[in-house]
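Prompt: Have a read of the protein record below and flag anything odd:
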Amino acid sequence: MAQGRDMSCVVMDFTLHSDFTFVRKATSDYGILLFFNQVTVGDFFRLRSGNEVIDETTKSRSNIFMSSTDMELEINYSKGSQLRRVGIYFSPNMVRKFVPESMRMNLTWYTKKGIKNVNRENINFELKSILNEIFRTNLKDDFGRLVLQNRIWMLTEKFFLNLIAKQPTQSDKADNGRYPKTEDVVRIQTVERMLTRADLDKFPSIETLSKMAMMSSTKLKAKFKEVYGMKLYEYYNRHRLLKAKEMITGGGTTIKEAAYSIGFSNLSNFSRAFKKEFGCLPGKIK
């Protein structure tokens, strides 16, 4: 869905019935492409740029990939892959006009790493909530398109604010700074997927999560907070409360049913946790 010459977006939500390849030709000028990916991979996922190739068989991918338009790119998804992706394009003119020179230097440093960045940024709790709203939006009327435009701006703002908050230092540029190693990020994503599973009725033990991530509990706690900005239980609790909120506001579910569905056996405890998270009792939003 286009929004103008300087900025446009595309929303994908479908399942592939055959192998499919996205091909992007390199441009001579420097624009930015930002993709928010929530993908369930069929048999494989392949990313290629020039002579660099990344092959992965990780079934579930939840990441943000920022790249420059002066880089050619080929993405191949196998048959059966479920794609939920939001892509945002910023033209070279928009980058020059609205991005400060110091920030452009950091963007250039960041994007020159090409496909090595594919697992660098994760979709945190806040961004996941906005993406869920986008995929639920009805785009067949003017109001729905207005809502989409608003959410796209929100995604853009949240992403770049997070990026600015971790402006690269010299040690970052040597890949020894605050960014976790790629293999650590992939393992932590596995833990994040566990904590947000729809059928999860209680918080797993730290020992279980540590084994899943193949790292010590101390390292897991530190790396998870570094990537997602929250402690493990805090992330799990916010996600399940958001799920309950969506059930209540969507209608057809009572407050008691919503509370029990996310693992609360005591309605008073649920109401207290809900108010702490959202600033009001569940009865108010219903």
About this structure: Confidence is low (pLDDT under 50) at residues 169-177.
